[in-house]
Amino acid sequence: MAEVLRVEKLEAGYGKFHVLFGVDIVVNSGEIVVLLGPNGAGKSTLLNSIVGMADVYSGRITLLGHDVTGKPPHEVMKLGVAYVMQSPNNFGTPNIFGELTVFENLIAASAGLSKKDVLKRVEEIYEIFPRLRELRDRKAKFLSGGERQMLAISLGLMKNPKLLMLDEPTAGLAPKLVSEFFSVIKDIRDKFGISILLVEQNAKKALEIGDRAYVLVTGRIRYSGDTKSIDEDRLAKLFLGQ
Ligand SMILES: Nc1ncnc2c1ncn2[C@@H]1O[C@H](COP(=O)(O)OP(=O)(O)OP(=O)(O)O)[C@@H](O)[C@H]1O
Ligand SMILES: [Mg+2]
């Protein structure tokens, strides 16, 4: 199985604030890998480190065979990674363009697709998120939280990535919508063959759709393995540092 992402012995943080300690993770082609951990464990920091948005002190990050350790975001993204940041995030980065319509957002985000494939991809996105087709002419700033999150994920898909990193895509959504989102995440992997690194608070549902999982607690990987070999009891203990 080809490797999409490999993180080795990663030490990273923000300036002097050390967050990650000796972190190792791998994402193989076609996998959904779930990253779980309590608040403040460093999950977002790990994703930030991969795309050059946190400070890497040592270790190595390999994306699709390229060493991207310490490379700036635009160079890493070019290689085929889309990052849907947690919202709101502490960089103050909105994950959609408020003044553009849904359709304009999708077109503006397209990269790595030929002209002919752009409209085809928009159509495929409308098939997985039918609501976005209905909303195609609405300015993004008027979307509801759930709709906004659908659009943010879709903007990632417009980049035709090999790896899609989703940071808490279901945060703040109504329970019914949460289930829908999880099935869409699975569809994205199945239909587009995109590998997914998924950070989630909703551990039970994430473990259901994931192939493998990592549990990060206070900056260290405390579990790595099959999603079937970990249950909520074990997870709760790990979260408490036991
Ligand atoms: N841009 C930043 N600058 C400085 N410190 C930061 C920054 N972002 C996060 N931190 C700190 O790094 C630590 C890890 O935060 P991180 O956001 O990675 O955790 P997380 O596991 O994603 O948590 P959550 O589940 O709440 O999203 C926290 O102590 C946080 O305060
Ligand atoms: Mg986070």
From TrEMBL:
Gene Ontology molecular function terms on file: ATP binding; ATP hydrolysis activity; branched-chain amino acid transmembrane transporter activity
Signal peptide: none
PROSITE patterns: ABC_TRANSPORTER_1, ABC_TRANSPORTER_2
Domain named ABC transporter: residues: 5-240
Keywords: Amino-acid transport, ATP-binding, Nucleotide-binding, Transport
Top-level taxon of origin: Archaea
SMART domains: AAA
GO biological process assignments: L-amino acid transport
Homology family: Belongs to the ABC transporter superfamily.
Name of the protein in its database record: Amino acid/amide ABC transporter ATP-binding protein 2, HAAT family
Organism: Pyrobaculum islandicum (strain DSM 4184 / JCM 9189 / GEO3)
